[in-house]
Amino acid sequence: MLPAAALGQAPVLFFSDLVSGPATGGENNRGAFVTIVGRHFGEQQANGYVSIGGGRAGAYKSWADDKIIFQLGHEAKTGDITVTTAGGTSNGLPFVERPGNIYFVSARATNDPGGGDWLDPWLSPESFYKNMKPGDICYIREGIYTERYGASNERANIGIGDEAPDGMPNNEIAWVAYPGDAVRFEAAGLKANILFGYKKNYYVFAGLSLWANESCIVFIGGNHRFVNNSCEGLKAHGYAAIHPSGGSGSKIYGNHIFGAESKNKLDHPIYVAYGTDDLDIGWNRLFANDVAEGPVISINTDNATVAHYTFENILIHDNIIDCRGSSAPLRAIGIVATDKGSSVYIYNNIIIGGGDTTLYQYSARSYIYNNTILDSSGSAALLLETVQDGANYYRPDGADVFNNIFYNRTGAFYVMIKDEGAMGNITISNNCYFGNGGGPVKDVYAVNADPWFIDANSGDFRLQAASPCVDSGDSRTLAVAGRDFNGNPRPFGSGVDIGAYEYTLQAAVAVAPGSSTPTSQAFPLMPGDIMRVVGSSAGKGSVNPDRGETAKIYFRGSDTGEFELRIFNNTGELIWQDKKTNTREDFFEWAPATVASGIYTAHIKGPGINTSRKIAVIR
Questions:
Q1: Partner of 185 for a Cys bridge, out of 157, 442, 472, 535, CB 3.0 to 4.6 A?
Q2: Which CATH number is 613's domain given?
């Protein structure tokens, strides 16, 4: 496939990690590093460039078709970030250039505590915590960080205590992984990697690899940004991998949330609670989570109608939610206990293998637009139901269900409504139904036909040109879902298409940011995976060398290039390494014949991948 720029596709921007920062200071005095994510940038920079308020970026750390990391440079000004390629100039993301300190932390620093600058970094993140103030940015260098570095009374790697300052609008306090470095926080004996014990505002955590026995991120307060993190948590019961617990205006963008093993339905990879408002959950990938029936994303607080917990303007969009592999049929999204006046927007998501009821709504007003929902099992892909829970009576305040594809090869019902007379207005229109007969009679504009995906078996859910879903949608969704999963504007033709993808003549890669095209199911990477360890015959990340077993570490990059695997023991000592060149998707095979039983960390670095997985050696 030719690069997007060569095909004449204009670049599209989805989000950035930082929304403000200084254009001077830091490495080579070129200011803050900023990561932007989107589509159609081109696999190589060629003549492309990034502008900030009209001034060109000072330097580039990496350039891929869906992600660019650049340094602001002296020309940067307050205004929009844009990307210009041979295909045109992108939409803009607002950015404020302003004064502020840029600090550095390195686990390999030679001085203790160090000075915190590029040439003399701090040895410990604790130094940044003790010195941080509004507008400060700290770039953390490669290493495995296992201690408490924040408030001493919080059970977390980074505990935000009462003494911590608030960030300010356009003067956020940012903890960011240095570009290209594997920065891993481990909370084996702690409650969380990042824990806000007190209500604080305007923090950024970006590019970090988080591993926790319980929760990765628990936060309260407003206008936080959690961007491009790898979150592997819920090895034991902990309620949530990411847990918004009140406040408003926060963003959860571009994270990989995976690896839950608690087998507990009270656990959720994302658990929205206590009347959180204006929460934006977008472009994430949630996969390989075993929390029994879950759901994966829960919006819920017990006693909500009595205690008046209202959840206003919750956005869940452009995510891949893969429910396969749980010990019980795993549900995707649950709108459970909320007070009247709550509103939830669910759009442009790709949801795979949801169990029992893939989406279910007991309360709130919902807007369910342009999702592609695949192979649901159990009673229904979508359930609307009233619930009496003690003194609390929950009922859906209404639902608009437009332009969704219900692709049920498993034979589950598409939509089930119980006690509709007690609910607000339920409108179901212009959805596509396939696999279990026709859709509900309530959908008078139903498309009862095969949607004609390009290749459903290999995870390519774009529409073919002759698909009956093309131009068959309802345009009332455009104010919310004006672009599709790939960032293409709707409508492309004479009408809006049904499903997460808008058909275009030059369709883009059919996966979420930071990944690559899914391959056939014979290769053991699910949609959303970039790395997986397969050890024993059961396919888990464990290996018994006494039985002749080896660990295969599969990976999928964003481009052809060199990939390096390094394996560390629990003290951080490098014990094995290997490289693959001129490849994009392959595997390493490790035979741990001479190592002791224990937990080892496998880290792969290469084009579009910089992440780690655990391997258990059991003799």
A1: 157
A2: 2.60.40.1930
